[in-house]
Amino acid sequence: xxxxxxxxxxxxxxxxxxxxxxxxxxxxxxxxxxxxxxxxxxxxxxxxxxxxxxxxxxxxxxxxxxxxxxxxxxxxxxxxxxxxxxxxxxxxxxxxxxxxxxxxxxxxxxxxxxxxxxxxxxxxxxxxxxxxxxxxxxxxxxxxxxxxxxxxxxxxxxxxxxxxxxxxxxxxxxxxxxxxxxxxxxxxxxxxxxxxxxxxxxxxxxxxxx
Length: 210
Description:
By secondary structure, the protein is mainly alpha-helical. It folds into two domains: 3-33 and 42-103; 107-208, Cd81 Antigen, Extracellular Domain, Chain: A (Orthogonal Bundle), CATH 1.10.1450. The protein contains eight helices and no strands. Helix 1 (3-37) packs antiparallel against helix 3. The radius of gyration is 24 Å and the shape is elongated. The two termini are 37 Å apart.
């Protein structure tokens, strides 16, 4: 294979490298847009993961562009710098993968879930006017009711209706559908069977990262 062939292979793999960076930026941006809307309910941990994805994607894209420039102008120093940075990035990805493997262990997941549940229970307990729209939207989006179950609403100070739940708990949302729990649990509630809102949010975030 001649110099031209080597350069073509280099450019080809560098394009793939650039595409992976752009993909990470896109995924991170989409996730951040979603998580920033539910941050008041689930905490800021999920949005921080999205920020990390964006940062990694930007770094990869910039390094890839450096490789392209070095290849086109035949700058051996720039290409060598690109290769060195690429090796560092690969090592960091390996370390990050190992960290995520450890993070996904049972103990770590329980700790994360405990933190998110605690935040969700606190928001539901207060149910302040400024956060009601977010809470209702999250419950509608994830088809859940409460942090652990619909009974969380019976202890909500801001809700003040121990025998009812917000209409956003209903699978089929209609005005007043959450006011009669004894009737609604037969037809409407999506979380009556122990579905946990926070576990659902966390599970979906991991699936998107994978």
